[in-house]
Amino acid sequence: MDEIRENLSKVHQEIITSCSKYGRSEEKIIAAYNCGERHFGESYAVEASEKIAHLKEQGYRDIIWHFIGPIQKNKTRLIAEHFDMVESLDRAIVATRLNDQRPEGLPPLEVLIQVNISDEDQKSGCAISEIDTLIETIQKCPKLKLRGFMGVGMDTPDFEVIDKEFSKLKSLFDEYSKKLEDFNILSIGMTHDLDIAVKNQTTEVRIGTAIFGAREYKTMNTDNQKIAFIGGGNMSTCIYESIIASGFNPQNITISGPHLEKLEKFKAKGSVITTDNIEALKNADTVFLGVKPQILTSVLDELAASGIALNHKLFVSMAAGYKLRSIEKKLNTRKIIRIMPNTPAKLGLGVIAVVYDSEVSDNEKQLSEKMLEKMGTCIVGDEDNLNVIGAVAGCGPAFVYRFMEALIAEAVAHGLSEDNARKIVEQTVLGSANMSLKNQDCTLASLREAVTSKGGTTYAGLCKMTEGNFEQIIKNTVQASLDRTYEFEKMF
């Protein structure tokens, strides 16, 4: 009987969640639909895809859906499957993924290139100098159809600045519309700068706020989101800095740890520090579990025994080998995220593996992505993926450093100074990585071959790597890291 009661409770909660998820926003769309509107824009792929499917089930099949938000690589399949137009295409790799993931039987996905007209680094958009390259990529994608440009003006009250930016994009649009077929959509202007957009002859405006009102967020509010860190070590510090850089208020963050003197750096930025984990927990909406796996069990027991309701809090664990189900059993909740960052995240160049438990809402996923966005690239997967990413990206920097150490040692052995050898190797690794990043259409093998002449010096060195069974060494290295991860999982 208890099992039946628990199952009924879960179903009721799912109904409440669905009503909350679909009800109000869908009612507004249907109201606009009944007034004759057929074009609707959405910024969040997961939430929108569910909404689109739900509305189609109700018979609203002639709506044209526009994706207008920043595109994450792990969301391209949802966008390709559910939308009719993408207005924020800004990278060749995203174009290729959208093309590959567009289902057979659907018409080509219409796309606009989002141009970074404000030259702000933090703004999405293709640089003007890279437009031609991106167009060439799109033209090679049979399931995409290029229709025009989109631009977002600078966030400023100075309308003259916005006017100059819109005018610049209008000139570009006129230039390209003369040489590209069906290139006839210019999408500039939102609710606050609509008048300037019309002045610059936009063909489309994105004015959801004027029609529907400001978007409502249940939990994703950078001003009042209460955040706690249990543990203030290196990775907690890295995540903390990403959170602050993303606009969250440091005064709403509490960090607990056994040694207050080690937490002074957080206090200096306006955050609260304490040695009491429960004090940090009690008012938090999101709790980062920043302790080592062998310590996490006792911390989870402490939190579970606190008497504080935990099922409305979001928990984020960064402990290797400590699976979701083990945390679930301790805290009796499934609002849990596991992350596995690597050390380059401290520079904003990291890889962060992310796994969501079953009760993490879309808003909470968006919230976590915003918190982590300044650390690097988030890769969402399951727990098996997490282990592999941990072995490759988490351990990978150490493997790369070992390779660099060996190259430096050889350079020194052949007469270079230690300083020069290190500079040369660092720049070589940096340059090689950037060559790979800048040439996504090329395989790594082709990049390698471009450096290698048959019978030449590079060829001779590569032959020795082959003789030394280099690939097998790497295979054994990664497998050893995975095996150790599986050992940790059995411990917890």
Task: Provide a compact summary of the structure.
With 492 residues, this protein is of the alpha/beta class. It is built from 20 helices and 15 strands.
Question: How would you describe what is shown here?
Answer:
- The protein starts with a helix and ends with a helix.
- Strand 12 (314-317), helix 13 and strand 13 form a beta-alpha-beta unit.
- Helix 2 (45-57) packs parallel to helix 3, helix 3 packs across helix 4 (92-101) and helix 16 packs across helix 17.
- It is globular.
- With 492 residues, the chain is α/β, with parallel strands linked by helices.
- The model is unreliable at 11-24 (pLDDT under 50).
- The protein has 20 helices and 15 strands.
- It has helices at residues 2-34, 45-57, 76-82, 92-101, 131-139, 159-177, 194-199, 208-212, 234-245, 264-267, 277-282, 293-304, 324-331, 362-372, 383-394, 396-413, 418-438, 444-451, 457-467, 470-491; strands at 39-42, 64-67, 85-89, 109-115, 144-151, 185-190, 204-206, 227-230, 253-256, 272-274, 286-289, 314-317, 336-341, 350-356, 376-380.
- An 8-stranded mixed beta sheet has the order 10-9-8-11-12-13-14-15, with helices on both faces. Strands 1-2-3-4-5-6-7 form a 7-stranded parallel beta sheet.
